[in-house]
Amino acid sequence: MTIVEPKPGPDKIRLLRDCLIFRSLDEAARQELAARAYFKRYAAKEPIFQMGSPGQSMMAIAAGVVRITAPMESGREIILADLPAGEVFGEVAMLDGKERSAAATALTNCELLVLERRDVVALIRHDADAALRLLELLCARLRRSEERMTEIAFLEVPARLARTLIRAAADAAERSRVQPVKLSLAQGELARMIGSSRENVNRCLKEWQRHGLIDLKDGWLIVLDPQGLEAHANR
């Protein structure tokens, strides 16, 4: 991890303007928050923080992808999210000042803007819109986590895998208009996303490939028939 010398103010301000939570800030508040924030760089696969470590800050992703993970009761690690540039993370421990509720790792080389708890708390005490955006983010992520845990507890592997691919394809489609959607997800990663084994994932993917729902080519998972996946997701 490298702490970067402060960049010119406009870089921080532009990043905060692009983040949903801070988009509603007036320019003076955004400049004040940017002046107190600082950048950190992480190499690919470098831990950012561990579950259970002290949490006194949240981060906005300026560049790269950050993976959020947590352990399951079985001992396996589940992938909760892969967050791209423009997203924020670490908000739970930042708000309550307690331990981190999950682990974060740089999936690629990353540059993060670090926002300390004292500065964010001071901001949301005086800005109702920023507080509301933060609550909306927390609720959305809580809902998604609850959905994932419910799926793992009650759905069979094919349904869990189909739902995961549908969500990943929808996220990819938002970032690119290219069709069909191509996903760079290894089978081991998919297994960790749905709380299963690589062997089970491979079995499902091979069957769906035979039926023309997906294709596996040159390291890509290509979604050919989203409606066909929907049918498996709802079984």
TrEMBL record:
HTH crp-type domain residues: 155-227
Which keywords accompany this UniProt record?
A: DNA-binding, Transcription, Transcription regulation
Superkingdom of the source species: Bacteria
Tell me which Gene3D superfamilies the record gives: Jelly Rolls, Winged helix-like DNA-binding domain superfamily/Winged helix DNA-binding domain
Cyclic nucleotide-binding domain location is: 21-141
The answer to keyword Transcription regulation applying to this record is yes
Cellular component terms per the entry's GO annotation:
cytosol
State if DNA-binding is listed as a keyword: yes
The molecular function GO annotations come to: DNA binding; DNA-binding transcription factor activity
Q: Cite a single Pfam family from the UniProt record.
A: cNMP_binding
Protein name per its UniProtKB record: Cyclic nucleotide-binding domain-containing protein
Organism listed in the record: Aurantimonas aggregata
